[in-house]
Amino acid sequence: MVDGIDILVIGAGVIGLAIAERLSRSGRQIVVAERNESFGRETSSRNSEVIHCGMYYPEDLLKTRLCVRGNPLLYERCEKAGVPYRKTGKIVVATDDAEVGVLEGLLSQGRRNGVPGLRLIDAAEMQRLEPRVRGVCGLLSPESGIVDSHRLMTCLQQAAASRGVTFGYRCDVRELTKTASGYLVAMTDADGAALSLNAECVVNSAGLDADRIAQSAGIDVDIAGYRIHPAKGEYFRVSSRHRGILGRLVYPVPSPVHLGAHAVLGLDGGLKIGPNSISTVRGDYSVDPSHEGDFLAKARKFLPFLEAGDLSPDMAGIRPKLYRLGEPLRDFVIREESSRGFPGLVNLVGMESPGLTSCLAIAEEIERFLVLRAPRA
Ligand SMILES: Cc1cc2nc3c(=O)[nH]c(=O)nc-3n(C[C@H](O)[C@H](O)[C@H](O)COP(=O)(O)OP(=O)(O)OC[C@H]3O[C@@H](n4cnc5c(N)ncnc54)[C@H](O)[C@@H]3O)c2cc1C
Fold it and tell me: What is the pLDDT averaged over residues 318-329?
């Protein structure tokens, strides 16, 4: 590890990697500290890998703006860099008349958000597009798709490294202390030995532990509203006999805070159902096999071809939520902390979905804070 650097990025998930890659274009000296042995070992490799279009949330939220901007940026990057992806499109399915109003609301919201191409389709068109899906009507989103998130992260990591970014793996950041010129960062290495580093600016993109990092700098996370309440999302794998049965992503109508367990398409044609949303503790990636019946019952409403025995436990991811289950939705927090007395510290907290879709747009945002801003006095 080097000392006296310009920018330390904490966390090599897809967001930290996208930020490091973007900032590396400025010629600044950048280090990424990651506690695991490699990049993308936490939330960024445990998700649906869906490129969202940005229709779900109100237009004034940061997560909406960054998703709508991030969607085309991500397709463009995948195309240029050879990252596997597919613009599959997606159908949100209303299974009874009561759900049609929800779809109409989603269509209006998506249009207000600037999402291109959204339209309602009737049962006959849905039958033509996805013959194995059942519903009274659907909302078609042509700009939704899927991406190989590991290949995306590999591409971002390699591009950053090729422009001189240093990656310190098995470096666990413990504490940030404000100094006259930036931050003294205390870490431990793979053997538990103490390390330290001075950085003028720090980007806290530590995912599930972003609240702890902010706290270590001296920010009261309860007053700031940064406390993370981890929420697990489990997935069940669909029997390979149904491989290739769907051509598009297929979702139920969403609840106010959850998109609902949906059909997750893999680039290989494989199918999963998930995720649900349950309170958990950091590090618990277990999948409870007893949830199979609930997944099956919910999915069969719009995927009637599923039968008992078709689902088996697959994997789980953990959302870094800023609210408890049942509480109102919160926006992404992306904040440069000068007003709290921490200039040059940028906290990213609550970076749940659509964080993967938004990663390149988030990186642009951080560039505006740290590179394009006026120099600090
Ligand atoms: C079930 C589920 C489904 C999802 N589906 C989608 C989807 O389909 N589309 C979409 O756009 N988004 C989706 N998301 C959201 C998306 O996965 C996340 O927004 C994104 O991966 C967050 O990236 P990140 O880099 O912030 O976090 P992470 O990937 O968690 O990276 C944070 C990194 O920080 C490191 N770290 C933490 N503490 C320290 C420390 N003290 N010192 C050093 N390193 C540290 C961790 O080891 C980790 O590598 C989903 C999320 C979940 C949980």
Answer: 93
- Give yes or no for residue 317 CB within 6 A of ligand 1: yes
pLDDT of residue 371: 80
**Residue 373: predicted pLDDT:** 65
Q: Do 148 and 83 meet the contact criterion of CB atoms below 8 Å apart?
A: yes
Ligand 1 lined by 252 (C-beta under 6 Å): no
Q: Per the confidence metrics, is the pTM higher than 0.90?
A: yes
Q: Determine if ligand 1 sits within 6 Å of the CB of residue 173.
A: yes
> What is the pLDDT confidence band of residue 3, given thresholds at 50, 70 and 90?
low
Ligand 1 close to Cβ of residue 107 (< 6 A): no
pLDDT at 374: 46
Q: Do domains 5-45+150-227+330-370 and 90-142+229-321 have the same CATH topology?
A: no
Give the whole-angstrom CA distance, residue 33 versus residue 8: 7
Closest CA to 176 of 149, 141, 204, 154: 204
- DSSP letters spanning 324-351: -TTSPP---EEEEEGGGTEEEEEEEE--
Span 2-23, average pLDDT? 94
| Residue ranges covered by each domain of the chain | 5-45+150-227+330-370, 90-142+229-321
**Which CATH architecture is the domain 90-142+229-321 placed in?**
2-Layer Sandwich (3.30)
Beta pairing partners, 122: 137
Ligand 1 contacts CB of residue 54 (under 6 A) = no
Which residue, judged by its Cα, is nearest atom 46 of ligand 1? 11
Which tokens in the block code for residue 166?
A: 């240093």
Q: In this structure, which topology does domain 5-45+150-227+330-370 adopt according to CATH?
A: FAD/NAD(P)-binding domain (3.50.50)
**97 class by beta-carbon count within 10 Å (0-12 exposed, 13-18 middle, 19+ buried):** exposed
Q: Across the chain, what does the average pLDDT equal? A: 95
* 193 pLDDT above the threshold of 80: yes
Place of tokens 């990424």: 32
User: What is the per-residue pLDDT across 75-90, written as a single tens digit (0 to 9) for each?
Assistant: 999 999 999 999 999 9
